[in-house]
Design goal:
Helix content is about 35%, strand content about 15%.
Length: about 300
């Protein structure tokens, strides 16, 4: 199972753009601070800054040109906002070569500009050859979804049936990796103080984006290709085909060390480290909120 508490706290800010419809849920997966759950449901990188660009309507529909325009804006303003990562929990079917695909060309330009692009594989599985654009681009990190089966032990993890399978139209092996994408609990856009569970590669993708933000915090000079290489090299083999799992299930223990995972105890230790770090920050937030409430009552 994917451990959402990082082994190292995020010390500095990295901006992440995301373009999708379930923005609240995805934002919580990346950078939720666990305030409403007393630290139980934390994002991967709680201190990451997120700038949202609305490229789709309330139903999640829109034109590719709108997304391309948004990506162009991110490239143009990356120095102003210190943008490092683009999270694309979206996609569209494509049956043309990537070099002719408008979305592919847009994300390739972003990567060439120094941005790390992480894209959802799509939810058209288990049929093969169903990877969505721009996930078909070789320059992006394409994320499929795994099912943790409700356990911490990764030995029973499988590829989610809905997760799109490779290869791409041009025969490229995709997805690159998988991350948990079944019943992922994060912020609700309906209940302001609550959480909701959603499934999809749209949920798996921000898990990887948050991990990339943590990685940049530790090694801030990494290029997009170097980040992709490190992520791919930090996976657990789920004993499935490359077309289904890519390199396997991303694991933060491997991402931040050269060691190996021997058992679930190692995974639990990482979770405890992250929880202790963020529990202190949560307590500070609660104290501040209490002080503001007291001041408000006093002024009344």
């Amino acid at each position: 199972m994917f451990i959402i508490q990082p082994p190292h706290p995020l010390k500095s800010s990295h901006y992440i753009f995301w373009l999708m419809v379930h923005v609240t849920h995805v934002a919580g997966i990346i950078a939720g601070n666990g305030f409403s759950s007393m630290g139980k449901y934390l994002g991967i990188a709680p201190k990451a800054n997120i700038l949202g660009i609305k490229a789709l309507d309330s139903q999640g529909s829109g034109d590719a040109s709108d997304i391309i325009e948004a990506i162009s804006y991110i490239i143009e303003t990356k120095e102003k906002y210190n943008t490092k990562i683009i999270n694309l929990s979206l996609g569209t079917p494509s049956n043309i070569p990537c070099q002719k695909d408008p979305l592919c060309k847009a994300v390739d330009a972003a990567v060439k500009a120094g941005l790390i692009v992480i894209a959802a594989a799509g939810n058209s599985g288990p049929t093969e050859g169903t990877i969505l654009s721009p996930g078909i681009s070789n320059s992006v990190i394409t994320v499929g979804a795994s099912d943790h089966m409700g356990t911490v032990d990764t030995s029973d993890d499988t590829i989610a049936p809905f997760s799109s399978r490779g290869p791409t139209f041009e025969g490229l092996m995709k997805p690159d990796i998988v991350a948990p994408g079944v019943n992922i609990k994060s912020l609700s856009n309906v209940d302001l103080d609550g959480y909701s569970s959603l499934s999809g590669t749209s949920m798996a993708t921000p898990l990887v984006s948050g991990s990339a933000a943590l990685l940049l915090n530790e090694f801030n000079l990494l290029t997009p290709q170097e980040v992709k290489n490190k992520v791919i090299d930090s996976c657990i083999d789920l004993k499935d085909t490359k077309e289904n799992q890519g390199a396997g299930l991303l694991n933060l223990k491997l991402l931040f060390s050269d060691g190996t995972i021997d058992n679930t105890k190692d995974l639990e230790d990482i979770a405890d480290i992250g929880f202790e770090i963020n529990r202190k920050e949560l307590l500070e937030d609660l104290i501040l909120l209490l002080a503001l409430l007291i001041l408000y009552d006093y002024k009344k």
